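LOG
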Amino acid sequence: MPGQAPAHPHPPSLDLLLTLTQLPTASGREWRVIDFLHAWTAARPDLSITPDAAGNLTIAPKQQWGSGGPPILITAHLDHPAFVVERIIAPTILELAFRGGVLDPYFDHARITIHPATRDRATGRRGSEPQPVLLATLTQKTQTGPSGFNHYLAELDPSTPDDLAASIRPGDVATWSLPPAEIDAHGLVHTHACDDLAAAAAALCALDELRARRAADLPTEDVRLLFTRAEEIGFTGALAACKLGTIPKNARVIALENSRSFPDSPIGSGPIVRVGDRMSIFDPRLTAACAKRAEDIAASPSAPIPWQRKLMAGGACEATVFCAYGHQATCLCLPLGNYHNMADLQAVQDKTYDAAKGPPQIAREFIHKDDYLGLIALLTAIGAKLPENAPISERLESLYTKHAAILDER
């Protein structure tokens, strides 16, 4: 019935997760997510949102928090591998470029959804109202464009109304055709783009938790959020943020990611303090400080939260970029299934996939809701208090003090 509450309503943090991770987005075409962030910030008069020259967004309190110490900058990226319409070849035939990393077998006659933007008839300017989506099928790979993106032809479904087909324009985003997001009975969140919008949702929720602390006159650090663009094509927005000086020189940067789960980094075992990736090791002092806060919440007698500490050797993330440009940076991540929407990925990579099942299938990414809620709790704990001195140094000094007299023995 209209207006009736759902049988199993989700808490606001999970509602935000489901909403944000279903917004169509692509490298360079993140405007739907950006519009969402502007609306989210506008509903909180104590916060401001500021773009840099590359379109990266910083959300920060209008009145600076903390006591003048180094700021904590929590970052996440706003794009996900997806298509962008390049040309309208015929009324029902499109050419699209794919921006991101997905293996070739997954494109074989795959189904996609095109998301035309509403436009003002007089000015042609893009609007924010949702537009009916259109379904299509990839028919062939055509070329690699000058930007290095692979191009594909797609044919609209025969049932597509002519007026909707005519609404498609170059620059429109197209995504894989996927079922709606859901949380299953095992607590797994199946949705379109966990990477990295689930991390963005966690950052927003943590900032709200910290705002509540401030309202209760509880202390916090100087916490800000940075949302970067075009990560999936080579950290482009993060590189721009470094070059433009968007990141304060003394900032402690905590990059958030969704990282492919492996047997030693299982889904459901908590958020991961990531010590490095396949390209670099992150700042050890900041990593140790984040791990200390993870230990604190794991030891909570009321609601202990599990966590993991891992080297994620299979990929790279923006923390490597920030470290390379001289910033103190580390990474927290959510263990992820169906990385970049690729089901049976390990079998495809190992060439053990059973071709009799047909082409490898695109599927929703998934995370565990408890890992997501644990990441919010960890970010809140970090934002409340993050030691500037590496906890390991304190432990080692304590060990030395305890046993130094042994060295006098001869």
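LOG (cont.) second protein
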Amino acid sequence: MFIPLFTASMSVVALYVYIRLILPLPLPVVVEIAMGIGVVLLANRVLIMRLFHITASDALLLLGSWLHAAVLMAALLCLVADVGFLIFGHPEISPVAFSGWVALGALILAAYGVRSALRVPPVREMALKVANLAPQLRGFRIAVLTDVHVGPLLRRRWVERVVDRTLAAEPDLIALPGDLVDSPETVLVKDIVPLGRLRAPYGVYYSPGNHEYIYGVEGWMRAFRRLGMKVLYNQHDVIDVNGATVTIAGLADQVGAIRPGATPDIDAALAGAPERDDFRLLLAHRPYDAAIHAERGVDLHLAGHTHGGQIWPLRALTASANAGYAGGWYTVGEMRMFVSNGVGVWAGVPLRLGVPNHIVVIRLEAA
């Protein structure tokens, strides 16, 4: 269902750009139509590449991402301009000048946005104050890598640098709450190899996101197990940290309702867990059902999926589509939830503006 909706949305964006920037230009009809078709194709480049199994070099993929992002930025700039015209009146500006300035601005914003999205993210350490935290857990550090999206744009060399930065931070535990990949296992067989170097004293834990389901969640979970990760699929594990008991649970993803795979089941995930653990950590890709998770005694819910909205003005829209959560810290009952901006970016919308990617290290501290 997502792909048809995304395609329809991108086609509407392309049509809007065509009407506002191309149609008013003094060009031959054939040229206008050709440019319009080009805009539609750029807006839907991911779908076209998948339908026709088109492969391209890294340079062409980067160029396509930049032009695709420029179409999105052109639509956003046109929308801002049109709202301004309605409020303040339409200035005296020729269609050629308007289209030229918008196109230039879109190309510059897109270049910056794509560069921001594809950078190797920095490590950002945050302190989490926890009431009644066991003394043994004070200073315990959890690295969070969500929405890595290894795929057409983010390949092995980039993954190696992400792994290097994560290991350099020396976390006690590494949590991977879904969307590690963005292509079939056969395509990424070499690109995911660096993930096998992820190691931490108390383990590397993974729960699946919706993108793993697209390419076969069972196969990807087997691949991640081979890389040394502990896969939590409506399951939990219990670790001992110098005498303190920590329960780590992980959920399946909601997309299991329409694709092969399980759906989230917090009760199944916690079945048999210690009733009096010292800390309860949950990996669940989407920031949904937070109130239910809080009722089940979860202390910290780690989520992703939203990418923080990717474009700052769209955070409110992102939150409305994700149970009111866009990115950052939230308090739900006695539970804290952290929704990560993500490490990588989906190739379908390959840009970030005002919402940086990051590798987060959460340090537990006594309140």
